[in-house]
Amino acid sequence: MELGLQGKTALVCASTSGLGRATARALAADGATVVVTGRSSDRVAEVAGELPNAVGVACDLVADGGAEQLLAAAREAVGDLDVLVLNGPGPAPGPASGTDTAGIEQAIATLVKPQQLLVQGVLPAMLDKGWGRILSISSTSVQAPLPNLSLSNLGRAALAGYLKTLAAEVAAQGVTVNSLLPGRIATPRARQIDEAAAERTGRSLSEVEAASRAGIPAGRYGDPDEFGAAAAFLCSAPAAYITGTALRCDGGLVPTL
């Protein structure tokens, strides 16, 4: 399938590893010019150098002024952006009963505020052109909150609500807004969550991973490249009539329609 990404520009947040890297790789393979981002300048340069059409911008998105700095650098490198992929690490694991105000503020500062600034920064040019794709790499916790990830559940749900509202507002102008919800994908973040579960329960890491696989109908963790392919499609021209949706990429894990 021709995705219509040739000549398009894409900013993929937190794209030096995991799902962001897989998404950047898929977009670049289909012809988009990709802005690779991350906090480590060395790592950004390394990953950008692996892609056929990419530039690297090192930036701490959650620092004060980080979103504005990232947008300015991205525009200087590639011009106005056609595709924005929101992504970033979640807050530390923890139960809802132990949540405090500082934790809630951290979740919003990490998972909502910089993303909203990026969206508002790219939206005017997309609306002027009558074409744009905004995609959030989120989590299945948006539909089924995950145990011991209370702050992540909170922040991701808040962002999803904002993006769903936005999707209806800009659909008629050719801009789509969607979320892609990974289940258990073999990334460093998934390993971190498994390690935290092992420490919390006293089980070995292999036991935690085996129990997790047993609950996935596909019987395995997903490959990041499988996720990247789904992300590239949602950012494509053929996906123009898909907006305001949250698509699961989870091997059948979440038991809802």
Features:
globular; 257 residues; alpha/beta; 14% strand; Rossmann fold; 9 helices
Do you know the CATH architecture of the largest domain?
3-Layer(aba) Sandwich
What is the strand content?
A: 5-15%
**Strand adjacency order, main sheet:** 3-2-1-4-5-6-7
Secondary-structure element pattern, one letter each: EHEHEHEHHEHEHHHE
Helix content: 40-55%
The gross shape turns out to be globular
| Total helical elements | 9
Number of strands: 7
| Cα separation of the termini | 27 Å
CATH topology of the largest domain: Rossmann fold
**Structural class per helix/strand content?**
alpha/beta
Oligomer: single chain
Radius of gyration: 18 Å
CATH class of the largest domain: Alpha Beta
Biggest sheet descriptor: 7 strands, parallel
Poorly predicted sequence stretches spanning 5 or more consecutive residues: none
**Mean of all residue-level pLDDT scores:** 95
